[in-house]
From TrEMBL:
CDD domains: HATPase_UhpB-NarQ-NarX-like (cd16917). This is histidine kinase. GO terms for molecular function: kinase activity. It catalyses: ATP + protein L-histidine = ADP + protein N-phospho-L-histidine. The keyword S-adenosyl-L-methionine does not apply. InterPro entries: HATPase_C_sf, Put_sensor_dom, Sensor_HK_TwoCompSys, Sig_transdc_His_kin_sub3_dim/P. Residues 13-192 form the Putative sensor domain. It comes from Streptomyces siamensis.
Length: 407
């Protein structure tokens, strides 16, 4: 909501708009023409990128200039990059809607708004000002003068009457001038201020990322506690039972052997549990090797075509467990004889990319999330990171699961 600024502050807002808009038009035209002309030589690409980001500094200046008519500060709509450096900053800015809204406002300011501001200032202040200065103009001209190129004045009586009329006209037009300035500022605020829904969505995204990171940290803590605590105790117990069997009488030795086998079985189950919580291969070598390990454990033979870099821990964890769930579904429901898994990462810049994994089998098809095949849980696991699952499973097969996670 734009406050009721005084007429002089409103006039100052419009004057500075003209002073900003005119040079801005020239700068945008120079960047656009030079960028387009030099693009075949690749020199123009940085100029076009600079043109696309021109709205960022202009938006910051316009938010500051809004204080002339509205003292309430307008916060910047941009997020802070997760990584330092110009590449991370530019990569984030190019993907934000606020950047393109600022660019749209910049073009609007350069092409439309400042000429409109100048026209309003000329009508509301320029003409009355020229009328008020009629006596001075007559004195400088000598015999007669034409005020605002409209009225011929040849006597001081006419000049004084014109000056009085100009003063009255100025007082009358100051209120419409202030109203126009408030409307003009409202347009700027609409395009340059952060949208409430975007702020809420950004906060939800950040809080969800914090929850995912906390969940992964807790998962790894449980895995370490089991590995370094309960597993080591079971290993020691198994060794003690094995040593006790060597010197025990036959009857006791049989019972110790049974206890030894039970301890080994519990130890094996505990190792499988630890592997299911957070496999060490995922933490040490990354998602590609972890998928290969899951393929080796699969009940159905798997062919791999996976080339992946190291990614963020939540992304790697979600993708790994999604692939494991998909392989488990294949083994339980599809009747497939073979599974094919492909994985690629496509990125256009720092912090901007998508992980795509496809799981295909030659089973009977007919996979349905409503049929208890585990697809609902798989979808929920990916949705935590804004990922998507696409299922193509006609009756008779084959079944293709396409997973995509933004990175």
């Amino acid at each position: 909501m734009i406050s009721r600024a005084g007429p002089w502050r409103a006039a100052g807002y419009l004057v500075t708009g003209v002073l900003v808009g005119a040079p801005l038009l020239v700068a945008l035209l120079v960047l656009a023409v030079a960028g387009a002309a030099l693009t075949p030589l690749l020199v123009g690409l940085p100029l076009l990128a600079l043109l696309a980001l021109a709205g960022v500094p202009v938006g910051a200046m316009e938010r500051w200039r809004l204080r002339l008519v509205d003292p309430a500060p307008v916060p910047a709509p941009h997020r802070t990059p997760d990584e330092p450096g110009l590449a991370a900053w530019a990569g984030l800015r190019f993907t934000e809607r606020a950047t393109w809204r600022e660019l749209g406002y910049t073009v609007l300011l350069a092409a439309v708004l400042w000429p409109l501001d100048l026209l309003v200032l000329t009508g509301a202040a320029g003409i009355p000002g020229a009328m008020i200065g009629a006596p001075a103009q007559l004195a400088l001209a000598g015999d007669d003068t034409r005020v605002a190129k409209l009225w011929l004045i040849d006597s001081y009586a006419q000049a004084c009457l014109c000056a009085a009329g100009g003063a009255v006209l100025l007082l009358v037009l100051l209120r419409p001038l202030a109203r126009y300035a408030r409307a003009r500022a409202a347009v700027a605020r609409l395009l340059l201020a952060p949208r409430e829904t975007e702020q809420q969505l950004a906060e939800v995204t950040r809080s969800r990322a914090r929850l995912v990171a906390a969940f992964e940290a807790e998962r790894r803590r449980i895995e370490r506690d089991l590995h370094d605590g309960a597993q080591q105790r079971l290993v020691a117990l198994s060794m003690q039972l094995g040593l006790a069997r060597l010197d025990a009488p036959p009857e006791l030795a049989q019972r110790l052997a049974a206890a030894h086998r039970e301890a080994d079985q519990v130890l094996g189950e505990l190792r499988e549990l630890i592997h299911g919580i957070h496999p060490q291969v995922l933490a040490d070598y990354g998602l590609g090797d972890a998928i290969a390990d899951a393929a080796d454990r699969s009940a159905v033979p798997v062919e791999l075509d996976v080339e992946l870099p190291r990614l963020a821990e939540p992304v790697e964890s979600a993708a790994y467990f999604a692939v494991r769930e998909a392989l488990a579904n294949v083994g339980r429901h599809s009747g497939a004889r073979r599974v094919w898994i492909s994985g690629r990462y496509a990125g256009r810049g720092p912090g901007e990319g998508r992980l795509r994994i496809e799981v295909r089998d030659d089973g009977c098809g007919g996979a349905d999330a409503r049929g208890g095949t585990g697809l609902t849980g798989l979808t929920d696991r990916l949705a935590v990171l804004d990922g998507t699952l696409t299922v193509d499973s006609p009756s008779g097969g084959p079944t293709v699961l396409h997973m995509e996670i933004p990175c």
